[in-house]
Design brief:
4-stranded mixed beta sheet, mainly alpha
Length: about 290
């Protein structure tokens, strides 16, 4: 928990310095003041809404056990086996099969599944995906993921602000700031860099392994990952800023093609499947 908190603070401070610097370059003192105000707003957003940003972006709603008794039963079984609190469960009306967890701590965690996930996966495959997300919650990965999602949304939103700033100190032109336009080109890669620096790909391998240990069935998770990748291509999410900012929270990258690949914090699905199969073979040989 202390490591995750330190990484989250370091990520926020580093991104804040960059945003203020961009504001100063694009609009001198006025630009820096606007950027500083955005940073302050970001801090408030991280504290108040960081854990709900992805839920809002996916139009998720809180569900009861009466609505989804099987889902509740699976999560409760896995959470009990992992000796961690039961997260709040959400359902997103999205055809693309995926899931994600968010929250600043295991006691404040939420786990969201899309309707496409429940329709696509078999029971054992669904158990593997749920165990993967519970592993993220247990490891406190959701804390830094929430910070990264909020900062990424802020940085990409800054692209709109740059066009409102005047060029230098001149007040004689209504033309958009050309330098600000150039900065827009740099903002998307930097926002993606924030995700990669804050999240990293090793956490997915770690969560896969812990999920396999919890369920005792690495191959079910491997099969689920393959179906999730196929589903993301068949039913791609719209390229919206908040969705791009939340892509790293998902079990698999929901944007396998186009600009969305910049924000992919996941290792290749083929590599994850290979590792899970190797884990199964290792278990079989050890018996």
């Amino acid at each position: 928990m202390h490591v995750s908190a330190a990484r989250a603070v370091g990520l926020f401070v580093g991104a804040a310095v960059f945003v203020v610097a961009v504001g100063w370059v694009c609009g001198s003192n006025k630009g820096a003041q606007i950027a500083l105000a955005l940073v302050g707003c970001a801090g408030i957003l991280v504290y108040l809404f960081g854990e709900s940003l992805a839920l809002r972006a996916m139009r998720a709603r809180l569900i009861s056990e009466i609505e989804q008794p099987e889902l509740y039963g699976l999560v409760r079984e896995l959470a009990t086996a992992a000796r961690q609190p039961m997260p709040r469960l959400y359902l997103s009306p999205v055809r693309s099969p995926n899931a994600f967890a968010t929250g600043v701590s295991p006691r404040r965690a939420s786990l969201c599944c899309t309707t496409g996930l429940l329709r696509t996966l078999e029971r054992e495959e669904l158990r593997g995906v749920l165990a993967h997300e519970l592993a993220h919650i247990r490891a406190h990965d959701t804390l830094i993921s929430a910070v990264a999602a909020t900062l990424t949304a802020l940085i990409t939103a800054l692209s709109a602000v740059t066009f409102l700033l005047p060029l230098g100190e001149s007040e004689e032109t209504d033309m958009p700031n050309l330098l600000g336009g150039l900065m827009v080109v740099l903002l998307a890669p930097f926002a993606a860099a924030v995700v990669h620096c804050g999240v990293g790909r090793r956490r997915e391998f770690r969560a896969d392994e812990r999920a396999a240990e919890l369920t005792g069935d690495p191959l079910a998770l491997a099969s689920a990952l393959r179906k999730l990748e196929e589903g993301a291509r068949a039913y791609p999410l719209p390229m919206q800023r908040t969705l791009l900012a939340s892509a790293h929270l998902m079990t698999t990258n929901p944007f396998p093609d186009g600009v969305g690949r910049l924000f992919a914090a996941h290792p290749p699905v083929a590599e994850r499947i290979r590792r899970l199969r190797d884990l199964r073979r290792g278990w079989d040989m050890g018996r």
